[in-house]
TrEMBL record:
It comes from the Bacteria. Signal peptide: none annotated. It holds the Pfam family ROK. Belongs to the ROK (NagC/XylR) family. InterPro entries: ATPase_NBD (IPR043129), ROK (IPR000600), WH-like_DNA-bd_sf (IPR036388), WH_DNA-bd_sf (IPR036390). This is ROK family protein. SUPFAM superfamilies: Actin-like ATPase domain, Winged helix' DNA-binding domain.
Amino acid sequence: MERSGTFDGVHRRNLSKLLTLVHLEGPLSRARLTAVTRLNRSTVAALAAELVDLGLAVERAPDPTNRVGRPSPVVAPSPDVVAIAVNPELDAVTIAAVGLDGRIPVRERVEVDHIVTPAETAALVAGVIARWRSSELAGSRLIAVGLAVPGLVRADDGLVRFAPHLDWRDVPLPALVEGETGLPAVVGNDATFGVTAEHLFGAGRGVDHIVYLNGGASGIGGGLIVHGLPVGGAGGYAGEFGWNRPGIADPDDRTAPAGVLEAEVSRARLLAVAGLAHADEPTLAAALTASDDVEVAAELARQRRILSTALANAVNVLNPSLVILGGFLATVAASDPDALHDAVVAQAMPAAAEGLEIRVAALGEDRLLIGAAEAAFADLLRDPIR
């Protein structure tokens, strides 16, 4: 075990610091890296060169500038280093390659006509990876697989304790995927990965207190950022807003007696009023936005009212400065954002709702995939040499 005070330990931490900076911020000049890290210029130059030698970064000439003196070379994460991100759902399994530089060079939505098993999911992922290795990802370095699962995932080992809509119970998904793909695998709750992505790269960037709700085919999940850090709870199961039972002021708004939030605020109900059997997020959003059907408007308003009560409860308990809504919840919010905000504030304690903002997820349908990839990159970013 290395001691934190040894040269090797310090060196590894400095490499991690540089690689993490260019991963999160994008290409940075050596001069900027020197200023941010407070390391000396020669150390930054040596670290950047080592990251290049490791195949994790690239250095390029600086952009033309009118500044006096020699411009500083720019360091960027290598576009050839990628993670595979996977989101299994009721109607489809979405797979993407996410680069260390933030690009998504290839993604695929595999629609299914049945609920996939864990073993089918692992085999499907392996097949797509094998095909991509000889085409879109030829020459790429695959680091790991990250899987964003709509259910309870144990933080310690990635065991899927219960994914109710997929009917997965106590599934050792990391081992299944590693056995099929030969790559390390990390598994987490989809909404937890979603809030991580939005906090690092999206609508919650720079915000330290966030409540995030994700709406997908399997219902509603949530994620929390408190004091700038993700909150998972004792076992990693925090944020299951969809299983809370919302208060519904108007009895006519209730469609599922004694139902939980995700039974009332539902993607399936939106698909039904839009006349769609299935659709990805952009397709459903476009159909609802373009519709002038009074039934569509009424259902959006009904779901918005119930959602506002659930969000007000979260605001009272957690006092966030920002609420982010992803998936079909973003479409519900966007149908009348002012009405949603006003309804939340009206039901929350005035002090808790002061300055509250409600935003839709900035990363759109990529948010869960980017979050899963971030988990897959975690070990590399922590120790680039290992």
